[in-house]
Amino acid sequence: MTPNQNKAVWELCRQGLHSIAEAAEMAWTRGEPYRPQQHAHLPRETAHLITYCNFEITPQTAVA
Predict the structure, then answer these.
(1) Cα separation of 42 and 64, whole Å?
(2) CA-CA distance, 55 to 28, in Å (whole number)?
(3) What angle do CA 41, 42, 48 make, to 5 degrees?
(4) Given 19, 34, 42, 62, which residue has the most CB atoms within 10 angstroms?
């Protein structure tokens, strides 16, 4: 994950949104964009950070 993605996960946890943070982390780790269902309930800055993080997606490859 990128530093901004880590920051977004930390910020979501700080706001008490642990399930959203976990879902975002899982999506970004799989190389997929995260689109929260509760987008309207997120603070604007956090929603913008998630949008930005979706542009930084890099799929992780498993090491055999």
Answers:
(1) 38
(2) 10
(3) 140
(4) 34
Question: Which amino acid is located at 10 in the chain?
Answer: W
The H helix count followed by the E strand count for the chain is 3, 0
Please say whether the beta carbons of 60 and 29 come within 8 A: yes
Q: Tens digit of pLDDT for each residue in 40-58?
A: 688 999 999 999 999 998 6
Alpha-carbon gap, residue 8 to 15, rounded angstroms: 11
For tokens 């879902």, the residue is 23
Q: Which pLDDT value is given to residue 38?
A: 63
